[in-house]
Amino acid sequence: xxxxxxxxxxxxxxxxxxxxEGKGSFLNSPVVKEFCIARxxxxxxxxxxxxxxCTGMDSTFMGTLAGMAARLASIDGGVIQIAxxxxxxxxxxxxxxxHFLMEIDPAQAVxxxxxDTIRASLKPPQPIMPQSSVERTQLVLESxxxxxxxxxxxxxxxxxxxxxxxxxxxxxxxxxxxxxED
Length: 182
Prior knowledge:
alpha/beta, Transcription Regulator spoIIAA, 5-stranded mixed β-sheet, 5 strands
């Protein structure tokens, strides 16, 4: 497993499992987002994000999870469940108000009795195409917009980040659309 993408996944009867081993960051957010969207497109309504080996999460990773939770909310019974959140990761999610969008360590989860079996069967997801600088900036911007929209406190917290990312994205898009000079 690559240090850049410490993500393992598996599909099970009634849920999909995504495990983050190491830091959840802007580096592995594209893989998580693409895998989650593919699973939702296949009809999955329950995504479980296992933070048992997660050493921390940046705002892009949490914004990606929030975006997936918002998409799932439009599906009857759709939910993101967080498994094995330690105190630090739980606090990170709660500080941004994301515990209102996700179920953190739900007591009645169907997977509780089989966590070890699930983890033993996980595999790296299919590799995704490398992202361009513009695509990476778009993902980071989208993640921070989702966080900002989740509550007023986050709007204030991330407003300058969103503004800076919008400027950066516009500059990158303008540069990418310029014809190459001879």
